[in-house]
Amino acid sequence: MKKYLALALLFGLALAQEGPALSGSLTYEFGLRYTDLAIAKNEARFSLRLETGLEDAALVAEFQASPERVGLGEAYAEVYLGAFDLAAGRILENTGRTDLFSPLDAFNPKDLARPIAAPEDQKRPLEALRLAYYPEGARAEIRLLYAPRFVPSTPPTGPWARPLPLPPGVVKVETHAPAATLENGVFGIRAGTSLEVLDGLDLGATLLYTYTPFPGLKALLSATDPSQPCPDPNAGPCIAVLGYDRLLLAGGDFALAFSVPGVEGGFVARAEAAYGRTQDPAGTDPFVQDGYLEGVLELEHTFPEGPTVLALYRARQSPIPGWTHHLALSARYEADEALTLEGAWVQNLTDGSGAILPRVRYRLADGLEALFQASVFYGGPASEFGLWRDNGELGAELRYAF
Questions:
Q1: For 161-217, what is each residue's pLDDT tens digit?
Q2: Which run of H or of E encompasses 115?
Q3: Rg (CA), the chain
Q4: End-to-end CA distance of the chain
């Protein structure tokens, strides 16, 4: 009830201002698994976004409707107080810089129920406060973030779900999320600056005190007497209790624009490095998730009258499974005013699995666009992408934006 009252209040305040800007979209998606021609997706989505502002304040309110949920999307009020900006509400916050893999972008939860959705569509708004400070005379920014309630990410579901490694004696699984209390909130700080190095250098640093996005095993209890540990996890019957671990995430990032003599078109190099520390960084406690190191390096180049190409390398290390490495390539080419060709290839260099994701966009009229896409997965049956070999799709989307 409170959510709908907040929605009505936000729209009422926005309409009371002069000149509110309305925008939105209506999208219909359809997809078939090409292995068995089963319907993989058949849904419509609607969004309506209202933005209005005064000299020293702004208001954003977005309503979303889909088969999964109906309610508020991003919705917040922001006031400008000299060198400070204060925002409160349902906020989308970027704390990372790289594409596809962004180890520092962990303030907002992500909906990974369909992992092949675009990364920007997977982030979900979070009820939070944001205080931004812009030092006078400096090309810099400091943002303080606080969310009073931790919201976990949604793991892959249905045919996309990954096996949960539990003892054979488990007959029931319970998942406990942190209580909505002050000490269980999510805290963050991000600082950034711009320097006149080559064609421009942006530097950033992020510190987040949050939780692991997905739950891990916290206890094995007896199904006959839940007050006692399970005497034999292999025979059972056991109750597996899952929960989230505190995560201290710290790291830095940069983006450097530069040119190469004799080569037309500019280059942009981006990188992120993150250290995620839990209470078990060495990986010795089976009831606490492990800490990890993760880094991403990418290079983007736009060819004159040609495509924009991005190459990305990602490495991640944790006690189990050790090092994993990914390589990704993506390209976008606007053939003319109506036709755009896109494609991405992601390869797990450690287990040999991968994904190929081609797309074709065509503008039918002002605001009306058709999208045709495919997804192909390959690799061993227990590999990262090979697990989804039967989930390859052929899909189409019709989107009207206003």
A1: 998 889 999 999 999 999 888 889 999 999 999 999 999 999 999 999 999 999 999
A2: none
A3: 23
A4: 29
- Between CA 123 and CA 107 the distance in angstroms is 10
Is residue 202 within 8 A of residue 192, CB to CB? The reply is: yes
40, two tokens: 């993989």
Strand partners, 318: 322
The structure's pTM equals 0.87
Q: Retrieve residue 158's tokens.
A: 């249905």
pLDDT (tens digit, 9 = 90+) per residue, 110-123?
999 989 888 888 99
Torsion of CA 85, 88, 90, 93, to 10 degrees: 30
Measured distance CA(331)–CA(306) in Å, rounded? 10
Q: What is residue 5's predicted lDDT score, i.e. its pLDDT?
A: 46
**Taking the CB of residue 384, how many other CB atoms lie within 10 A of it?**
20
What is the C-alpha to C-alpha distance for residues 20 and 2, in angstroms, rounded to an integer?
24
Residue 233 main-chain phi, psi, to 5 deg = -60, -25
